[in-house]
Amino acid sequence: MTDLHAPRLLVVDNDREVSMLVGVFLERSGNSVTVATNGREGLERIEAAGDAFDLVLLDLRMPELSGIEFLDRLEAMPSPPPVLVLSGYIAPVDRERLDASPLVRGTLEKPFDLEKLASVIADTVAPARPEPHEAPHPGLWNSSEGD
Questions:
Q1: How many Å apart are CA 37 and CA 34, to the nearest integer?
Q2: Is residue 21 part of a domain?
Q3: What is the CA radius of gyration of the chain?
Q4: Cα–Cα dist 103/82, whole Å
Q5: For the chain, what is the mean pLDDT?
Q6: Would you say residue 118 lies in a domain?
Q7: In terms of residue numbers, what domain contains 96?
Q8: Which residues of the chain have pLDDT under 50?
Q9: In Å, how far from its chain's centre is CA 5?
Q10: DSSP 6-24
Q11: Domains in the chain: how many in total?
Q12: d(Cα 31, Cα 5) in Å, to the nearest integer?
């Protein structure tokens, strides 16, 4: 049974072993995971699902459509999900592009620690918690000052 409040993640990585390992670990950690084996498939899944994903885990080096090309197309979509980049190597020009993207929430270089990945994901998709506040002092709201 899937938790309706579980973070919904899309893993876009052409390395099937990495995708499977990450997917299984994240599902066991309470996430809902969908895997796409290349950028084109990832975009198709996002288009088909609408706003179903809370976060995309994106590799940069993939055939068909690179992670940077994927990001370019994702940014053109209405209400795209945020992105966490998982890559073995990030070239300086790609780093500049990632730093400039409003969607990229961070990067993890492969190999990465799965517990660190889970922590970064939890921090990235955690719902904003309202600040606890006290009830306003009655005299402040019923001030007759200026009347």
A1: 10
A2: yes
A3: 20
A4: 5
A5: 85
A6: yes
A7: 8-122
A8: 1-2, 128-147
A9: 15
A10: S-EEEEE-S-HHHHHHHHH
A11: 1
A12: 9
Contact 102, 81 (CB under 8 A): no
Task: Supply 137's token pair.
Answer: 């002092």
In this structure, what token pair is assigned to residue 41?
């498939």
- The verdict on residue 27 lying in a domain is yes
Pick the closest to residue 54 from 114, 5, 9, 102 (CA basis): 9
* Torsion of the alpha carbons at 51, 52, 56 and 57, rounded to the nearest 10: 180
CATH number (domain holding residue 95): 3.40.50.2300
Q: What predicted TM-score, i.e. pTM, was given to this entire model?
A: 0.82
**Cross-strand partners of 32:** 8
Q: Rounded to an integer, what distance in angstroms lies between the CA atom of residue 85 and that of residue 30?
A: 20
Rounded Cα distance between 87 and 127, Å, is: 26
**What was the pLDDT predicted at 130?**
43
* Side chain identity at residue 24, one-letter code: V
CA 146 – CA 95 distance, rounded (Å): 56
pLDDT score, position 141:
38
The pLDDT value given to residue 127: 63
Residue 134 forms part of a structural domain: no
